[in-house]
Write a structure and sequence with these properties.
Elements lengths: L1 E4 L6 H4 L1 E4 L9 E11 L1 H8 L16 E9 L11 E4 L14 E5 L12 H4 L2 H13 L8 E4 L5 H12 L3 E6 L2 H10 L3 E4 L5 H8 L5 E6 L2 H11 E9 L12 H6 L3 E4 L7 H16 L7 E6 L3 H10 L5 E5 L2
Parallel strand pairs: 7-8, 7-10, 8-9, 10-11, 11-12, 13-14
Antiparallel strand pairs: 1-2, 3-4, 3-6, 3-14, 4-5
Helix pairs in contact: 4-5, 4-10, 7-8
């Protein structure tokens, strides 16, 4: 099979290879998927760069956790009726070496949910990390109907889905964005108010949108950099659900301020979500896709041969949508 892989850590153009590898066979409880698309996420490029030093201990790694394709065969214990089923893929390269950047993937059947007929394979490659992370951030701490939720980076991969989950569940959503194009995308996704986080006073602008009332929950793309604002904006007993802290990877916590406001901080990563939360997210995604109720931001689509370029685009951090590889 054609596949991309790396055998050492380093810059994308130095270590990523594309060529032929042996195709896998499905083991017990697994399905064999003919992969059509593979999504490149920030966690994928960090792994390739060396964020997990023991990742290569057992040999080469085929990157990327998200993707979509068609089940071609099943292993023992899996219903043969699933053969021919369109599926989306998540957690493909977590706790294992072989991800979605290949023509074929053998993976646990539970990591290959059905992809509804009205969703393309490109959409399927957006769902694992972006949409599931957003769902967990919005709903992990209870019903949001009637609440006010601040989504920082509302036009980003996760933020864009978070705005949609929250607004469609009955929350008043305030999003932050840095330019007019992103403001428009946030509004289209369901944000009632959009605040420019690169100009003016973010706290004052958010409070102006809420008539001075604190927010109930924050879905945060930059935990450390935004923490002071978050503490000021949250109500007593509020929650910060965060999935990234790139600018300040080791933030210092103002313990007393946070304690006196009874703030809950929820760290979210798909891999560590409880299985029950994953199944809730999958069911919600299926329902929303079937209804055509989710918008998707796909910034770039390129062939597998351009995987190094795709990694570089993600690393630059200048795009708001997903980067998708096509595997034909």
């Amino acid at each position: 099979m054609r596949a991309a892989w790396f055998e050492q850590f380093g810059a994308a153009r130095d270590v990523l290879q594309v060529g032929q590898l042996d195709a896998p066979s499905p083991g017990r409880g697994e399905v064999l998927v003919r992969v059509h698309t593979s999504g490149i996420n920030p966690s994928d490029v960090k792994k390739r760069a060396g964020a997990f030093p023991n990742l290569l201990d057992d040999g080469l790694v085929i990157p990327n956790s998200d993707g979509a394709g068609i089940i071609e065969a099943v292993g023992e214990g899996v219903d043969a009726g699933r053969i021919g089923e369109r599926v989306w893929l998540y957690q493909a390269q977590y706790g294992r070496r072989f991800g979605t950047a290949a023509e074929h993937l053998a993976i646990d059947a539970s990591r290959a949910p059905r992809l509804v007929d009205n969703a393309g394979f490109d959409v399927g490659a957006c769902l694992g990390i972006p949409a599931m992370t957003a769902h967990r951030c919005v709903f992990a701490d209870g019903d949001v109907d009637g609440q006010t939720i601040l989504v920082t980076g509302g036009a980003g991969r996760v933020g864009h889905y978070a705005v949609q989950w929250a607004s469609q569940a009955g929350a008043t959503v305030i999003a932050t964005a840095s330019n007019d194009a992103d403001r428009i995308e946030c509004t289209k996704a369901g944000a009632q108010h959009v605040v420019n986080h690169r100009g003016g006073d973010v706290v004052a602008d958010v409070l102006a949108a809420t008539d001075g009332k604190p927010v109930d929950r924050i879905v945060d793309v930059e935990f450390g950099a935004n923490l002071a604002n978050s503490i000021e904006l949250l109500r007593i007993g509020g929650t910060i659900a965060t999935y990234s802290s790139t600018q300040e990877p080791q933030p210092k916590l103002p313990f007393l301020q946070m304690m006196y406001k009874d703030i809950t901080v929820r760290m979210v990563i798909v891999y560590a979500m409880p299985e029950s939360a994953k199944q809730m997210a999958i069911a919600a995604i299926d329902e929303m896709l079937a209804a055509g109720a989710l918008q998707h931001r796909i910034a770039h689509t390129m062939p597998l041969d351009e995987i190094a370029k795709g990694n570089e685009i993600v690393e630059q951090g200048s795009i708001r949508g997903s980067v998708i590889l096509t595997i034909d």
